[in-house]
Write a structure and sequence with these properties.
Elements lengths: L1 H22 L14 E3 L21 E8 L4 H4 L5 E3 L5 E3 L1 H21 L7 E5 L5 E6 L2 H14 L5 E9 L2 E2 L12 E2 H7 L13 E6 L2 E2 L10 E3 L10 E2 H10 L10 E6 L5 H10 L4 E4 L1 E2 L7 H13 L2 E5 L34 E6 L26 E4 L3 E2 L14 H14 L7 H11 L20 H6 L4 E10 L4 E23 L15 E6 L5 E5 L7 E22 L3 E18 L9 E3 L2 E5 L5 E8 L8 E3 L6 E3 L5 E3 L1
Parallel strand pairs: 9-20, 10-14, 10-15, 11-13, 12-14, 15-17, 17-18, 18-19, 29-32
Antiparallel strand pairs: 1-5, 2-6, 2-7, 3-4, 5-6, 8-16, 21-26, 22-25, 22-26, 23-24, 23-25, 27-28, 28-29, 30-31
Helix pairs in contact: 1-3, 6-9, 7-8
Length: 650
Amino acid sequence: MAKKILLFIIFTMFVNYSVSFISSFRPSTYSKPSINKLVFGSNITNETFGEADDEYFLTDSKYYVSIQFNYESLENLLENSATIIDDNVFIHPWKDQIEKERDYYYPKNIFLLNELGFIDFNCSIYASYYSPFVTLFYDTYDNYIKDMGLILKLNESEFIFKSYTGEYKISSIFSPFNFGESTNYPFSQALVDSGITNSLYTGNNVRVGIMDAYLPDSLTNFIPGKYNLLISAGTTNPSYHPHPSMVGSVLGGIYGVAPNANLFFASNADNSVEEIVDYFYSNNVSVVNMSMGNSTGVYDYYSAIFDYYTTEKKITFVASAGNILRDIKTIYYAEPTTGVPKSRLNNFSVGDNVISVGASSFNKKVSWKSSWEKATSGNTNFEKPNIVAPGEKLIGVGNYSSLDGTSFSSPIVAGIIARLMEENVILKIHPEIFMAILINSASPIDNQIGYNQRSGYGIVNYNEARKLLYNYSSSIVSGNVNIGTSVITKSFYASGNTRIKLTASLFSHVDINLGSAITQKNLYNVVIKNSNGTILQSKDNSSYSPIIFLDFSFYASVPSTYTISILQNNSINVPFNYIVGMVFDVSSEHLHIYNDHYTPNGSKHKAYCVCGDFISNLHVINSNETSNHYANCVLCNASIDLYTTTVLVV
């Protein structure tokens, strides 16, 4: 044991020196970390990707094993994880902390890789610089199977918190077809329908990551000095494609939602997802758009790492829900015909903390190709997509004739988040609030109330979201938590009729879908009380969703103060932090009181409220009079010609 400790000290000193030596050549904190490829076992020198299919942009399948090591995070070790506003109005971890994290996580990951014997594995390995994750990449299924026995045995180690295995197959979430909705959707109208009717904020001083299967093939739509491309050392032939150019054009640049945002493009064809996330974090990116993924509909390793970086590193992730790409005969909301394969939700979008975005069309319906289906196995109670945004047959975005698919709804939402971050800069480190704000402010589709499996909570609405920017609360929960504990309590004053629209979101990187013993998705409920302590409304989180949505109206006969509380549902010891974010909107509404005197008015009655509002009601006749030519209305006694007038039969 003493020998192992000595070896660890020597190894750590060596790695720390190496990292410090390498760091001395970096021009600034914001430069990307050195890409580390540790090659063990066979002669594999890098994970390689096959040629993409021109129609679906799919990469060849690889196999991976991703491991989350079990050791205390640097965040828990540091008493003060300082967050500041620098001269450029960026909110970010202090640069010393970024270097401390790199010097803490990377040596620990390398040491455990060696200590646990991964040097004997037939794969290439990426060890994260800023988190306790490492990933083993296999070019062949045979090598993957050879190591599976060792991997299963290592899962029993106290140093491994969790491991994830799967097939590595990534694609751009792009639809090559332009059918379904027959009407082109002008981008200018799409912006209006998303509530973007002013240019007060443009994403200035907000850093936005764009993760795609490729790098943009054209930069003509982007402002010089406002974009950056990740090209790793040793990459001689980077992979370029129009898809990220289109995505970036919608999000930022000359024509985009947030034209002054600083864009950071990264290609999964040339870098692993882990490398890209490390790159974004080291460059202080605040929000990441992912118009790519794998349509599996399940929570996997990538969901886990995005959830981790959301809670621990304060990055907001937005992902396309995916495109169904069903038979052309399929119509809105219809199930596919027998034998037609269905495309599930993009796995990049199913993380608890990831904002999943479907696509809406010109007629403000859900695009027929927008994915919503979950896998049939495992825990699939998550509510995805969360919202929708315009994404079908968009025209008028620079020199692109038509942009079709959820690839282009997701960057609209990411661009809106960049605008909101510019307006309220502190929200750059509160990703949990964006989930609540966007859901709470979404415009319902077809008068929906709450969640719908195809449209989420409705169409994103920037103007409505702005109203909630400063009416939020957030709380970090950990340790022993007793039932009935108030996590968040807010008070508000109301008079007259009051409508409360409240959304709460639970953020955690401890997932239940992959076997964690701790069920954290139903830990809390919402209670609304009056000044006497009487409960007016309550809602628990029995759905196992990380979201609680409540839309409640009540009549307050006496002006009073009310409270909204999020309470712990059960007693639990929480080994990791989880974050609760809440926003609510309170508005007084006039209660219409209509007179009950019905006056014949053509084929209908009209009843008026004192405010001038009116309702129209049909004439009502008894069912035993339907065989007659004329009948008397039971409300106003008028004689009605049943051959020419529409009536209500009772």
